[in-house]
Amino acid sequence: MRTTVKVIIPIYKTTLNQWENAALANNMRQLATHPIVFLKPEGLNINPITQQYPQSTVMEVSDNWIGTRRGIAGYN
């Protein structure tokens, strides 16, 4: 039986700071052999991020759970 791993990376804001960009770039390099999904709140435009990492896919969830209303506290 083969187990498939999917890497889920929550994104809750449009613009990432320098440290967040560096961490994301490192994760994308280190985990490149696995499917990567960006988890984002409904309505958040993350096109600059998805254009930089076209190998990823995007899943939208309610902005009550992860989003600008609650920020990082929404998924911690």
Summary tags:
76 residues; alpha/beta; 3-stranded parallel β-sheet; 2 helices; 3 strands; globular
Question: Please, could you describe this protein's structure?
Answer:
With 76 residues, this protein is α/β, with parallel strands linked by helices. The longest helix is centred in the first third of the chain and has 13 residues, at 18-30. The protein has helices at residues 18-30, 47-52, and strands spanning 7-10, 36-41, 57-61. The protein is globular, with a radius of gyration of 13 Å. Strand 2, helix 2 and strand 3 form a beta-alpha-beta unit. The chain is built from 2 helices and 3 strands. The protein has a 3-stranded parallel β-sheet with strand order 1-2-3, with no helix packed on it.
Q: What can be said about this structure in brief?
A:
This protein has 2 helices and 3 strands. It has helices at residues 18-30, 47-52, and strands at residues 7-10, 36-41, 57-61. Strands 1-2-3 form a 3-stranded parallel beta sheet, with no helix packed on it.
